[in-house]
Amino acid sequence: MTPPPARRRRSGTDGYAPARNLPRRGAVRRAQAITTYGVGALIAVDHESFVVSGLDGADEHWNADEAPRIHERRLARILDVEHFRLPPASEDSSRDGIRVRRFPLMHSCPECNELRSHRAFNPPPGKSICGTCEADLVPSRFIIACEAGHLDEFPYWHWVHRTAGRGTSSPGQCGGTLTLRSSGRSSSLRSIRVSCSCGVPEVSMEGSFRRSALKDLGLRCRGTRPWLGTSVPAESCGLTPRTLQRGSSAVWQPVLKSALSIPPWSDGRADPLAPYWDRLRTLNSRIEVEMCLKFVFGGECPVPLDEVMELLAAEQEEDAGSDEIPTFDHRYRALRSKEYERLRAGNDEREHSRNEQFVCETPLGDPAVLDGLGVAGPMLVKKLREVRALKAFTRLADPDSTTEADEAALSSTRLNWLPAMEVRGEGVFLRLADEPLAAWEKLAAVTDRAERIRRAHQGVMEQRASDPAHVPPSPATPRMVLLHTLAHVLINEWSLDAGYPAAALRERLYSDEEMAGLLIYTATSDSAGSLGGLVAQGEPERLAATIRSAIRRSSWCSADPLCIEAEASGTDGVNLAACHACVLLPETSCEHNNALLDRALLIGTPEDPSIGFFGEALSP
Fold first, then answer.
1. CA within 20 to 30 Å of 389's CA: 8, 58, 422, 602, which one?
2. Is the pTM of this model over 0.70?
């Protein structure tokens, strides 16, 4: 990239220093602090670059006064925390906000072309300009990262001295000064030239993105974690890092976990007890619980004793039948199972308080109109609350992959909270009828197509896993791929009918041997989450018309016949008949990053229409 032309810094403009507050000109929304610019992410503000600081340390940047607590007991149990906190707001009332650290430290001057650390340019206090040329400094375009989540500066000195037959083995001891310039002949890496005044030949950045480029230099990851500060020692790593562009999406990918607030935790009355649940769970009798509550609250407990006992009984019921040491995946699947049961059972608003955050009712229309479609049990979710927590983050993870890479921690020590956001809105839940689904799943052509997706996905997971022997099985079953593709076409259809953009809707899939349902709901915390109109789409008559319209619309793609006849599509071939012209959605709407999709399982193929579960819906 050609460096921008030199610009004089206007007087009176504050610069950045490590671990300083992010000024208003670079403010981000609360939701972005979870999904886009979370802990460990790089953020560009004007012509400067920073990494968002960790949650702990001497300069803890999430002020408790500006990070209100939110509670979601079932998700907190799974993530082993006490509560969650909203990111600091960026309004003018915010006194602290989110702190950042300058990264990368290597900068270049577009006037003198010198390449050195930011401090070596001797910039005036609070500014990011060359002390000699007074031109705005340009942060290094290149950084390095490894699969364990570590982040470091690009080793320019090693790169320019890699073929030199002389010099020293330690950076900076050759006595020369690095320079970075662009030849201007093209926008390729070959035009970016790095040189050293010690006399070694000038080299280009071409080849620096090869997987083995840094390994060939004899370099290993140093285990640095700049988002945690200089006081936190580097981890032992030894992996081979890879070169990335500073703005690449592979630099930071969030690991988000979410849960719907469902009874008995959805009315918020148990929130004052959040710090004491672990202690209460160890008690064996009602008398012990009562004494503990009196000791904790001194006077009257904010939650009646009978309700506390009911909540403890509900937790014990959820724990029943689990493994002795259940894994995180097992507990997370159990959470989904409880949501599915509650969505099927409903939760009528008339029977609960006005503070109830989950209202799910049966439609008034006749559900018999859906019988011929193979769909059953629609429910109108008139009110829901979802909590999304930032558990960790990954680097060098494929954004189209449904697997998780090594997770990097948000703090250097274990905390009893995690950053999270809450979303309130509405939705529609529906299930696939048991008998038609069971007969369809047994078709050989159906299982063959699903097996092709499963094998491709399983191979991708094993290829990327550090230990292929412990890779979980792929979730790509005929039922799961069918539900996933159906959710996509319904979101596309409802984005036209319900008043919501597709990016404001989200799927939530419930698929295993005992579950076959999906929830489509509003998934944004801004004004698009309060437009209304989505619940109305769940009335049986309108839902039947919507499904038929969505299936007919998906029966033809502008990329056909290539799309429907594709042997594999998507990254690593984990889709079949699915492309951006038919069923793919915005990233915020899909749980599986637009993978594990096949339009043919909805409508069939020209050679075999019976593959389509909804093939009869296309009949006049």
1. 58
2. yes
